Amino acid sequence: MTRIISGAAGSLRLEVPKSGTRPTSDRVREAIFSTLTSWDLIEGVRVLDLYAGSGALGLEAASRGAATVTLVEKHPQAAEIAKRNTRTVLGAFSRASTAAPRIDVVRQSVQTFLASEGERSVTPTWDVVMIDPPYDHSETEISDVLSALAPLLAEGAAVLVERSTRTPEPTWPSGIQPIREKRYGETALWWAEPAL
């Protein structure tokens, strides 16, 4: 079972696709959001969740106070589940008569999405970016995604890459510098920020 851990939609259950995704465990999600809270990167931020799957990471950010969340997922079944989960989370804000964040689900490949963002964005867009690709994605693909993402990061942004502990550290492009690595069982979290 996957659920929202905290915030306006705390304890709500989320659907997960039957196959093709690997939901982040509650323990790892709690570690991710503890880090973001300590960096004051939750309340009012713009969040991009790449390879979103069920949307659990981005929707957790929405529940905890992010201003906008964009979930990017190319697989039709997973994108549909992310849309249903989005409605569930927004319903919690409605029931509490609380201002809801803007949440968009984009059914597109990550590369296509970042290319279109790069073409139309004149100012850096994202405060927090979470990248949790399927473990079988190549290191080259992750490196290409990070390179496309670098010019879209706001000042002081945080980038999270979640991978298997059996994969090497991502190859960071010139515009992004690593700042921290944490391991939780089979999961490795790499944190980075825009390079100065």
From TrEMBL:
Name the record gives this protein: 16S rRNA (Guanine(966)-N(2))-methyltransferase RsmD
NCBIfam families: 16S rRNA (guanine(966)-N(2))-methyltransferase RsmD (TIGR00095)
Matching SUPFAM superfamilies: S-adenosyl-L-methionine-dependent methyltransferases
UniProt KW keywords: Methyltransferase, Transferase
InterPro entries, sorted: RNA_MeTrfase_RsmD, SAM-dependent_MTases_sf
Originating organism: Leucobacter alluvii
